[in-house]
Amino acid sequence: MVFVDTGGWIALAVKRDRYHKKAATYYRKVSKAKVRLVTSNYVLAETYTRIRYDDGHDKALLFNALIQEAVTEL
To answer: How many Å apart are CA 44 and CA 24, to the nearest integer?
Structure first.
């Protein structure tokens, strides 16, 4: 189980983030290993707000939709 904080989500979601390649590689690795990713509603709200501020409303909505689709447990 890995807790994902705001920085991790932003690095994964924002291609121009300086850690995007590392985050994407790590995500593929843990996904393949079926490692459970854990986060909180506060982290997701902060991430949504940051993406909206930096990349716009549409990108933030896409992030939110992808997260909602991936949620398996509340």
So the answer is: 18
Q: At what angle do helices 6-13 and 41-55 cross, to 10 degrees?
A: 40
Q: CB of 2 within 8 A of CB of 38?
A: yes
CB 28, CB 35: distance < 8 Å: no
Range of the domain at 58: 2-70
Number of domains observed in the structure of the chain: 1
Dist. CA 38–CA 22, nearest whole Å: 19
The tens digit of pLDDT for each residue in 10-60 reads 999 999 999 999 999 999 999 999 999 999 999 999 999 999 999 999 999
